[in-house]
Amino acid sequence: MLQLTAGQPCRTDELAETYRLLFAACDGVLRVELARRPMAGGNWRRADTLACAAEEMVAAESARITAEHGRTPREHVAASRALHTYLWAACLLISGPWYLEGRVPRLRAMDLWVDPSDGRLALSPGEWAPGGEAELRTAVAEHLGPVLAAFQPYVRRGPRALWGMAADDLVSGIWYLGRLLGEEDRAVEAAEAVLPGGTPPFPGAAAFRRLTGTAGRTHWTRTRAGCCLYYAIRPDDACVTCPRTTDEERVRRLEA
Predict the structure, then answer these.
(1) 10 Å Cβ neighbour count for 203?
(2) At 199, is the secondary structure helix, strand, or coil?
(3) Which DSSP string do the residues of 164-177 spell out, in sequence order?
(4) How far is CA 123 from the centre of its chain?
(5) How many Å apart are CA 14 and CA 10, to the nearest integer?
(6) Quick one: which of 175, 135, 187, 156 has its CA closest to 83?
(7) What separation in angstroms does the CA of 16 have from each of 13, 21, 97, 147, 216?
(8) Structure confidence by residue, pLDDT tens digits, 3-51
(9) Which end of the chain is more exposed for a tag (fewer CB within 10 A), N or C?
């Protein structure tokens, strides 16, 4: 539980409450605690020191994949999975409050901690900042730039591919939250406004499209700009937005 002390801006309290609403909506998927300092019992590292923790995060992800799937992944595969986990959560910690409130939260790297052993996060909420889609992109890019640089030697991909991963996780977080709230159309519209294309360092656009299903149903989909390499762990179960997944297979999964 976040403990506020006398003299702290009320906007901090408002942002903390918005985070609580976000975590409740995500129903445990976001493993984040609100705290001025992380709770004892973890190997916590501040997000602005991830360059020193990236190797440990990759090793922990490799061990997890080996335990769950019975196969040891190559280092760049484990690194891609660890990076994707962090990117998705960090993007949603910025885009989620923006989607809910129409304001951009200030997420300073020094106010976010990660436990490299299991990927848990601890967050000390800052304050709101005014702004719309452009300011949201800036906030996400400023937070993620050093993270992508820290992981690049392990992921072994160039800047465009890494920013493609970041773009995918920014879009998918908004889309995911909208589906949870029963307002997928609004979330798709919001995600397309955030990434309309031509907004470096993020390559490409959200680029949603409709799939025709059965019985007159339609489904939103998009194709990822970057790759999280999940298919390298489970070749027969690629992501539903993976370029390897056909539209027919997407419809089958969406209607299963």
Answers:
(1) 19
(2) strand
(3) HHHHHHHHHHHHHH
(4) 15
(5) 6
(6) 156
(7) 5, 9, 10, 24, 42
(8) 222 233 345 688 999 999 999 999 878 889 998 888 776 789 999 998 8
(9) C
